[in-house]
Amino acid sequence: MTTKSAQWLAPFDRSFVEKDQKITNWDDLAPYFEKLEKTSLESEADLKAWLLNWSEVLSAAHEYVSQRYIEMTCHTDDKKKKEAYLVCVRELEPKLSEFDDRLNRKYYDSKLRDGLDKSEYGQLNRMIATSIELFDEKNIPIQVKLQELSQKYQELMGAMTVMFDGEEKTMPQMSNYLREPDRDLRQRAFTTTAERRLKEKDKLDELFDAMLKQRSDFAENLGLENYRDYCFKSKLRDYTADDCFKFHEAIEKTAVPLARKISSQRLAKMGVDKLCPWDTECDEEGRPPLKPFDKVEELAKGVTDIFMSVDERLGERFDSIRFSMDLQSRKGKAPGGYQATLEEARIPFIFTNAVGSHSDVNTLLHEGGHAFHTLQSRGLPLIWYRHSAMEFAEVASMTQELIGGDQLEPFYSDPEDRLRARREHLKGVVGLFGWVARVDAFQHWIYTNPGHHKDSRNKEWLKLAKRFSVGVDWSGAPAGALDYLWHRQLHIFELPFYYVEYAIAQLGALQIYREYRRDANKAIDNYLNALSLGGSFPAPQLFETAGIKFDFSANLLGELMEMVEQELGL
């Protein structure tokens, strides 16, 4: 690590929590929360200092929880790590929720708050007012139960393996076969994987129904009509459910037709009579799959080089955190990818399931964007401001997929391979919109139709699959494969209504990419300036700072789809 890059990891000294205080359980934290609750606030200076102290102890607490979560997801088959995380969920987090509410009310009820600068503390006031409105002590055990159920989902998905051609393979490893030119091999791999997932369909349905019951009770305790209303309020959304429905229509009108055009072109180039679900990831010209790297060390090094070529500031930041990653897929590892923040150190941790495919490059570019957000906003003293609205948080990540994905020399010396990878990514960007609309519309139906039967749920899923279909024929897939395809989307289980943000953010990322092609320095400067604001402003203002529109109308989406279509040469 260079001296220059190390500045991004400079430690923050404690001033309220004892420097040698280790956090291992609630008893280590309780004295600090009790002291905060008893503190007398006599001036605005007292109130500001009190907020900093509260932020400091929260950072220490959340870092401990994040560490346990990281260890659990990296080793879902380790009983000790699983139990350590569940102790956090069952014992630590309920106490944190209880004291957070007490301190929220202490802050909000203080007359001194009225004297604070609204431009600096206005967003915090909004956050805390919403937290107070949405807190009910009866919901603490429900939150615990929901986290336990989420852990069960991760454990179930992480344990899935199949025997394929004499070798045990994880689900991410099986995805590599879907990129092979041999169609029979792809179909066998798809069928084997789908049948393995379907063996768990009853368990997953039962798990999801248990989650729905808990969420319904949660909303009822707050006097809300449904859990969707809670999600929209808690996420401080600057748009409504009706706006989401209009966005679905805009996607159906603009992005889905382009995705269908891309599928038709693929069908013609492949020379097959129908496009099956095992035909969507392979090269349409029959070339072997791209092999960007053999070892994950090469993946991390290559992505570092990409960021260096985009902007030296990005490369230095990414290089400084390469020690804080777990990238390799393996048995017992939770699915997916994420970036977690160690709140006290204010350092990101990146988790992926790399198997040697080009999608692994995109994933690390994506999570690298989240890491830049963490590093760029780490100087903000209040923990509440170090995380932005998800609509903008995903702009940070998706922008790097688009810009970094245009600088693939570290992985491919052949210009044809770089062009091929770029085209496939842009096609994926188009396809993302329809998938997001399908998942989001599905969740709206789920949470506004309480007490529904699982068969009705699958029927609605199939209806939406038809509405946003891009021309894939599922008739040859194992029975139930399409019906239960949603089981693979962890957000539906663990993070309800966290999905439309991806499509909104993609609109933002495409706008930054458009500006980057005109003026690269200006685009990156605006991007970094917006990231440095963290969550101190609502999403529309963050978009504005980045030089883009917070607009998900058919007009803007149509413009951006036209730009992508032109770049693809369709």
TrEMBL record:
UniProt keyword annotation of Hydrolase present: yes
Sorted UniProt keywords: Hydrolase, Metal-binding, Metalloprotease, Protease, Zinc
Domain Peptidase M3A/M3B catalytic: 177-559
GO molecular function, one term: metal ion binding
Gene Ontology biological process terms from the UniProt entry: peptide metabolic process; proteolysis
EC number: 3.4.24.-
Nucleus as UniProt keyword: no
A Pfam family: Peptidase_M3
CC cofactor: Zn(2+)
InterPro entries: Pept_M3A_M3B (IPR045090), Pept_M3A_M3B_dom (IPR001567), Pept_M3B_oligopep-rel (IPR011976)
UniProt-listed PANTHER family: PROTEASE M3 THIMET OLIGOPEPTIDASE-RELATED (PTHR11804), PUTATIVE-RELATED (PTHR11804:SF48)
Name of the molecule in the record: Oligoendopeptidase F
Organism: hydrothermal vent metagenome
